[in-house]
Design brief:
347 residues, alpha+beta, 5-stranded antiparallel beta sheet, 10 helices, 19 strands, binds zinc ion
Length: 347
């Protein structure tokens, strides 16, 4: 039976993608996906999957019963250029806001924020603690209202300065708040800083899904040209600091991108102002059509109204649970939705 033209184009795209795939190293492989699920992620037929295996797509197991690493499949599909795979479509959908006008990216925004962690065990162990990072939008001209912290014993608003994280002796913990953010567009003044931003953009890095153990690995940036939000931000902050420019990494959330903990860099420019450089959105904006060009302009710092910072740097977690005196698996849910605007807070 003749194969559909679409199947042939998908196969060609996936084969090209395989040539540039950064494969998860053997010591970090999960091999958590079977052939049927692999075909779904890649949007391909069984013939194409066999072709990819012949061409070196990493897998374990007997022929016909192979198992794949989900991160490999995701990254392969994302950079296949077919436009039809699940990862490509999910990406295009969750990044469609990058097409917004500059005005829309800067306007005041109110979001309902809810973060919840719960021990994953059926019965939580002794001496449990749960920790959540708090949103700190006041770091960049925003504000938090109606902050509540709720554990199994009930609800209580934190008194005084809530700090960067909240910890309770509890098997579960939830934080809710209304978070007000605003964007900012600033020119980069320091010539050294502009040169670093341009140098970073010219590296043409690829954002990829990486095993947790490699997400902070700055060496992968220089040796393989691949980065997570964490490693891209660490690398860029390093370049700044080596040039004598004060820079720190920051983690936080992005309104509209659920379950993604994002990372970016905060630099002190020659005019003394702290500016946000977001290395990963510059990379993303190359994969989505018609994005706002300011998102990848190395001469400006665009902090969008979608960024909700924590007070934490990369390497820290936005949520942690411990019981029986060790870190324990936990379920984390993140919801950030548009808040109904109230007249007295409207612009
Ligand atoms: Zn527990």
């Amino acid at each position: 039976m003749a194969r559909q033209p679409g199947a042939v184009m998908t196969a060609a795209g996936l084969c090209r993608g395989l040539d540039t795939l950064y494969a998860v190293p053997p010591e970090h492989r999960l091999d958590d996906v079977d052939r049927a699920s692999a075909r779904q992620v890649l949007g391909c037929d069984d013939h194409t999957l066999s072709t990819l295996l012949d061409r070196g797509l990493p897998a374990s197991g007997d022929p016909g019963e192979e198992r794949f690493d989900s991160r490999d499949l995701f990254n392969l599909a994302l950079y296949s250029g077919t436009g039809t795979t699940v990862p490509e479509q999910a990406f295009a959908y969750s990044l469609r806001w990058m097409r917004s006008s500059t005005e829309e990216l800067l306007a005041p925004r109110a979001s309902r924020f809810a973060l919840r962690i719960a021990c994953a065990a059926d019965t939580c162990g002794p001496r449990p603690t749960s920790t959540l990072a708090l949103p700190r939008p006041e770091r960049c001209g925003g504000a938090v209202r109606d902050l509540t912290v709720e554990d199994a014993d009930g609800t209580a608003g934190p008194s005084g300065d809530p700090g960067d994280t909240v910890t309770r002796t509890a098997s579960q913990l939830a934080v809710t708040a209304t978070v007000h953010t605003r964007g900012e567009l600033a020119e980069l003044r320091s010539p050294e800083l502009r040169a670093i931003a341009a140098e970073f953009a010219a590296m043409d890095l690829r954002w990829v899904k990486l095993p947790e153990a490699l997400q902070n690995d700055v060496d992968l940036v220089t040796t393989h040209g691949v980065a997570s939000c964490d490693s891209a931000s660490r690398y860029l902050a390093q370049l700044c600091r080596r040039a004598g420019i004060p820079a720190v990494t920051r983690i936080g959330w992005v309104v509209g991108m659920l379950d993604l903990v994002h990372a970016w860099v905060e630099v002190e420019d020659a005019d003394g102002a702290t500016k946000v450089i977001d290395p990963v959105f510059a990379l993303f904006s190359a994969t989505v059509r018609d994005t706002n060009p300011l998102l990848r302009d190395p001469a400006v710092a665009l902090r969008t109204n979608r960024l909700i910072p924590t007070g934490l740097s990369t390497g820290r977690a936005v949520a942690e649970h411990r019981c029986a005196d060790e870190p324990t698996a936990a379920r984390l849910t993140t919801k950030i939705l548009p808040a109904p605007t109230r007249p007295q807070e409207g612009s």
